[in-house]
């Protein structure tokens, strides 16, 4: 077996769900610490974000737009996953981590009530909503196996963007482009949670759902894809001419805004302080004081697209091994990648060496692909 084959096999193993027993043991300890601090004996997890994090990548959804088809009670005696009777076979065969007890409820039953009742404690469980901040903090530092899965997903997503966008033409429609992206994302075993595209006629929209419009001379594509619970986010631009001086200038300035945000993303920094730096960076690089109000600025990433979106009201502290997707934007410009704050600094995960790039403040960043 060659070194490349061995590395590929290791990465493939890393992305298998149910996930790492070692990572799951650390996550259970983090939840027990939450219970200790709250003086409670059990915690009921009910959201997709919390469930996929705690189960380390298990799929607990059917409809992407629907509620999870499972709930999980963590108590001091063990973990209890409750699902509907018509889901139990697949969950048991493909998604149930070792050491998790599986219980069923009729498909017409009350999932949360059933999950709350399986514990051994005499008191009601702590609802997930009452431990939102604590659970978010527990998810911040990605562990080794989930970091490997996230890196693999992000790199594959970046490669998909390169492949699909490189084949685009001015008469390709926005729907045509995102359908090609969606097909590749699904073929990679992931779920396309967000697919956006604007051609040159619709470049003023910050969240452009695709239409039948042709791409024209310039286009943006955005994909947020989930696999094993982890969500990778990426934006890329293409054009079919040399671009205008104004476009090239705005692209360079938005990358400079991002570089300032990256510089502020260090262990120990508070998210509200980074948000203050974001607002200052727009002014510093000539976008005006109101640009931060035109679109959300991103924030920590991982088991949610943003966990959470950064605002002046979010005071979470940045930690090492945490993932981020910042996405500063201006009129007809935007830059976005998924990165992880490692011991040696921010490492961009959604990177493909085939995509054209430039060095911005010491970090390789994507530029518009000219076709």
Automatic annotation (TrEMBL):
<protein>
    <recommendedName>
        <fullName>Xaa-Pro aminopeptidase</fullName>
    </recommendedName>
</protein>
<feature type="compositionally biased region" description="Low complexity">
    <location>
        <begin position="1"/>
        <end position="17"/>
    </location>
</feature>
<dbReference type="InterPro" id="IPR036005">
    <property type="entry name" value="Creatinase/aminopeptidase-like"/>
</dbReference>
<feature type="region of interest" description="Disordered">
    <location>
        <begin position="1"/>
        <end position="22"/>
    </location>
</feature>
<dbReference type="InterPro" id="IPR050659">
    <property type="entry name" value="Peptidase_M24B"/>
</dbReference>
